[in-house]
User: What shape does this take?
Amino acid sequence: MTDQPGDATSPQADEAGTVQRASEPAFNLPSGLVAILVLLVAIHAVRTYVLPSGLDEELIFNFAFLPARYDHSLADQSLAWLWSPITYSFLHGSWEHLIFNGFWMIAFGAPVIRRIGMLRLALFWCLSAVAAVALHTAFHWGEMVVVVGASGVVAGLMGAAARFVFSPSGRISRQFAHLNRRLTVREALANRSVVVFAGIWFLTNFLIGLGVFAFGGAGGIAWEAHIGGFLFGFLLFGLFDPRNGPSKEE
Assistant: This one.
């Protein structure tokens, strides 16, 4: 497993002179992505099987995101208001929650990491996490609602990937998508594959907001944070992308 573009399987020519793309392995994840997934699993395993419930509740209070923190004087509370807009993204509510986020992180995080590398990904992770809960807070100002999970970051990775993973034919190559030219925002909005993908994604999240797809009601899913993360990744990905510098729109 590698996060270096040069290690990806490359097109090969056969004896007849025709070019054929070597078959893509089912799993060839960037090492940085594997490290992130291992970290998320380790954190949840320690919380689930090692920490006593009281200590876990204290951890959640200090590292999960709470909109209510910002409706009170910052001088009267701990510094959790400073780091919780990022640390919440490393905590999950259940194994199902973690597995769901991990699946989509593999699908969309791999091409993004291959394209921008781990250093830029670290900054992208932090800022997309903040953007996600910023929009969530706008809808839930002052509420004592606990927000945990990497869903906002995953949505940011989806938005970022939408800017470059689709080939002109609309297909996605798992191993070579990161080599595509980055579309400008205007070009992306004119690309049928991007529009269909984004349209289905937004529709799904709006239905979650209405409680159609939510288990136990929409209150358990911070769908506004998903939208905040996606918009951040889609609109601002050019600032993190070294392959073809920021377009005129950005």
